[in-house]
């Protein structure tokens, strides 16, 4: 008896799909059956026929939910799905276990095993192949630089023509994690004059190796797990003031600073936005319902200031490069499956340093210490 | 007494402006006064204040029209402008003298001097600094490659990540004139696997020097003035059949083939469009009211086929990079002004090998032999 993996059509606005034809091909060669909901890959340009050719069975939503031993998903499945889940089924995806506590409690109550990518221990090297946050941030950084190039009113590269020379565009990337580095690399490819800013001084080497200038302020804040720590109000004010000078010297500003589970830090103040000259472009990858890195940014909207600067709230960039993003996501899913299946059976080892962390709930219990902390459980 | 140059706010949908702040600065240092209509630069992110700081006088539309010795324009000014023009005034821009014969006859009747960039002798080397078709095609090619990168569902470059390797996207550029070469160069910068096709075998060197693969068919058609000649129906059929094989092997197809004053050649047949797999992206730079290079393309629209391929009608790409495109256009305008002003006076020398060609009408007469041919005048 083989295990069945299923993927559903995601919610409207989410273009990705949690399994790709390439990964399906590998899964069916192994010990898995694969169910794909009709139309699940449409928005990633993977039609049903392509999944079918890869060995998946195309079925309706209910059949996919009910037939799945493991349901792979990009975002939280909605109430229609959760209502149908049964004890012992496993859910794997971005389940927001630290910010949507009701949801994780409901999964526990239903005795669903919930593997949440947000809980992955990102500094353990064998977890890297499962790191959805990293793979999707990389897509987002690439896409942000392209969006900048497409929306900005000038050439990014220097151009030498019969009619004269155009200067290269100055691009500043705030936050040089995975997304920031990929944005820097892509803007450099396009010939822009790029600088990267981070409050972690250790980022200098990575930024400079891409041929960009490294900027930092007098505030330094290396934190846990590779993230920056949260700053004090005094440090924040000092950082914002020092950043304002960098911002004023650039044409395109891409911001990527996120602190897991918290409001993103405000890096570009209203004063900097108001001072920005006509045509300046801000791309805020942290734009979310919680706020963003740029004052006044709104998720999925372009805001034009009185001075004709533009602020693009670009929190869902990975979904905008859906085929590549799905490919990467699916490979991360496959890596988790490889880790949790032994001899054709699902083994969720709570003592494993990776899987034990990834597991939010199993057997009706919330076992993740991070989720328990958030719920103030002992 | 100095000469006055003016630029107006262009028609809706046209984001460019015919003079840039940089060129205004140079003109006012010389022997010119400059009038800019209120808001003319808004859509290029050049606010009135920036033009004013450069030395222009900001005024209303009527004052700009009436005060101009030379009116520089991107596209044909509308009836409201033409009605106000007086004998002896000079109009300089893309005036469609070969395709809109009524318009050029009206300018002649009003004794307006019309300098039309479409008539520039493009193979004369001193005309290169005035070559608007070339400068704007260069912008369009750059923008087409960026649009492709932004709209395509996958990474253009090869990506090596913890979760695996993504293959580079295959980009095919049909027509390797100025726009095509710039599209090739930009797609190469982004890391795509690029090939360029042209029916002029002499293009091979330019394409290969950009690191792209040169493709050609058994049909060869070098024509006049650097353009390809029009093909016979038999040659067209043969070319289309041979191209179909190239198209089927690529993910992104950018088409740039234009023949001045004629319907653009159909390079991608309906059969090729229908055979294209999901996600294939066609960008048709020749898309116009006359038709385009891709079957079914529509100007300024995205058409999705039954197989989920996309066809983007991208005939106005230069207008979508408005600041850089305006800068280049304005430099071309400045080069013409330099050629037609001597000792502070306008001298339109009909015997000059460049200006004589550029002039469609002067002193109430249509003097361009190309326009006279189109009008069947002796």
From TrEMBL, chains A, B:
Segments forming domain Alanine dehydrogenase/pyridine nucleotide transhydrogenase N-terminal: 6-140
Catalytic activity from the UniProt record: NAD(+) + NADPH + H(+)(in) = NADH + NADP(+) + H(+)(out)
Location of the Alanine dehydrogenase/pyridine nucleotide transhydrogenase NAD(H)-binding domain: 149-313
One of the Pfam families matching this protein, by short name: AlaDh_PNT_N
Origin: domain of life: Bacteria
Record EC number: 7.1.1.1
Biological-process GO terms, alphabetical: NADPH regeneration
GO cellular component: plasma membrane
Entry keyword set: NAD, NADP, Nucleotide-binding, Translocase
UniProt-listed Gene3D superfamilies: NAD(P)-binding Rossmann-like Domain
GO molecular function (one): NADP binding
Residues forming coiled coils: none
Enzyme class at the top of the EC tree: translocase
Function: The transhydrogenation between NADH and NADP is coupled to respiration and ATP hydrolysis and functions as a proton pump across the membrane.
Protein name as annotated: proton-translocating NAD(P)(+) transhydrogenase
Organism encoding this protein: Levilactobacillus suantsaiihabitans
Taxonomic classification: Bacteria, Bacillati, Bacillota, Bacilli, Lactobacillales
